[in-house]
Amino acid sequence: MRLLIVEDDHALAAALVDALKRRGIHSDVAMALEDARHMLGVAQYAAVLLDLGLPDGDGLALIRSLRAEQSAIPILAITARSALDARIVGLNSGADDYLTKPFEVDELVARLHAVLRRQGNLSGSQLTAGNVRFDTMSGDLAVDGVPVILSARERQLAGLLLRRLGQVVSKPLAEDQLYGLNEPVGSNALEVLAHRLRRKLEAAGASVRIETIRGVGYLMRELPTIASA
Asked: What pLDDT, in 10s, does the model give residues 76-109?
């Protein structure tokens, strides 16, 4: 999962990126509304963590414009404005949740997961498909209860495909979620990654398969159950 953090406090933004990364959540950072609009236009994010007090305007303006454009991207507003009326305005503008500074990162993550569950983008802390179980918090994957050793990037791809089981995940979406805007991506990096993950799942006897949809992206589906005679 990759988020867009819109926060002009460099120290706080860096601390958030580091704390979220330790929890398996990767982030890009925009320091101003203009930067955020540009990044949202060229990359696809799972959610936005949005500070409302920004140097080039009020974050509420970004929320309103996204909702006016029919964007359903989950938005968690983060601000020092603790008054009840400020929170109501934020929620009425289209924010999915509201967190006041200072806050604990674990609470932020819990609220983020709750928002994503409501949006249908995350099915709780445990994702299951056939005999595969994936822990979204730790990134651990097991087949029939036996752990499968995956690299950090393989874990990210497994989580992305499991969250969208039975749906095609486009190559641009996968690259945005796994690599972000600031990391160079080789032309076949995603193909190699999907191949490695596919082989590990097959070797472990997983009852799911990663299929390549030529020119589009990747799809994970459950294998049909073979009835015993």
From this structure: 988 776 655 666 766 777 888 888 888 889 989 8
- 3-state SS, residue 127: strand
Clarify whether residues 149 and 201 are in a common domain.
yes
| b/e per residue 23-55 (b: at least 16 CB within 10 A) | bbbbbbbbbebebbeebbeebebbbbbbbbebe
Q: How far apart are CA 113 and CA 20, in angstroms?
A: 12
Check whether residue 144 and residue 173 sit in a common domain.
yes
Fill in the DSSP letter of residue 189.
H
Closest by alpha carbon to 47, among 104, 102, 101, 96? 96
Whether residue 185 lies inside any domain: the answer is yes
Which tens digit of pLDDT belongs to each residue from 163-190? Answer: 888 889 988 888 888 887 667 777 788 9
* Residue 229 within any structural domain of the chain: no
